[in-house]
């Protein structure tokens, strides 16, 4: 069975950029999973620091209103990996999931760490790179011209163990499969 992980689509992240395109693509993928009755699992990150935009019980930590109603399950985490000290593994095992699709925010941290952790646990992993986004920039990394999403996509694809697609490739490969 397939499941979709929607990582860190929270107010405290979405407010830091213009993510209309990413949110739109995320919603398209989510709707595809809902139509085919495959589970949609939202991952919600929390920080202990009161100064963090993702501080527990803050408005920033809440799932973004544009997508939150699609969640079949919500798993809480406090590290970049959605698996570390969470209920994700147990939930996926109960559901009989063997193939994870990953979309969401903080491409180079939470999405990438989760993809690698999923592979390490034996899941087939599909990373839909243009349905991810990040609040970080090339200036933060002191790497002028760095396209974080494409860089992460290339690294994961070069691993030859994680499937990396853009949305159009996903539609071509899996949309027809989901409607059968």
Automatic annotation (TrEMBL):
Gene3D superfamilies in the cross-refs: Isochorismatase-like
Keyword annotations: Hydrolase
Residues annotated as domain Isochorismatase-like: 3-157
Alphabetical list of Pfam families matching this protein: Isochorismatase (PF00857)
Any one GO MF annotation of this record: hydrolase activity
InterPro entries (UniProt xref): Isochorismatase-like_dom, Isochorismatase-like_hydrls, Isochorismatase-like_sf
Family in the record: Belongs to the isochorismatase family.
Protein name: Isochorismatase family protein
Species of provenance: Gottfriedia endophytica
């Amino acid at each position: 069975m397939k499941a979709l992980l929607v990582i860190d689509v929270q107010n405290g992240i979405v407010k830091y950029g213009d993510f209309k395109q990413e949110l739109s693509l995320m919603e398209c993928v989510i709707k595809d999973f809902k139509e085919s009755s495959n589970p949609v699992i939202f991952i919600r990150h929390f920080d202990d620091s009161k100064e963090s935009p993702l501080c527990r019980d803050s408005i920033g930590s809440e799932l973004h209103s544009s997508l939150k109603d699609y969640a079949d399950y919500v798993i809480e985490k406090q590290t970049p990996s959605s698996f570390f000290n969470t209920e994700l593994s147990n939930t996926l095992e109960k559901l009989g999931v063997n193939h994870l699709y990953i979309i969401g925010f903080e491409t180079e941290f939470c999405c990438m760490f989760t993809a690698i952790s999923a592979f390490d646990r034996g899941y087939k992993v599909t990373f839909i790179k243009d349905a991810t986004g990040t609040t970080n920039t090339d200036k933060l990394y002191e790497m002028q011209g760095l396209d974080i999403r494409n860089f992460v996509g290339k690294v994961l694809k070069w691993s030859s163990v994680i499937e990396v697609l853009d949305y159009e490739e996903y539609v071509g490969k899996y949309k027809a499969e989901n409607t059968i």
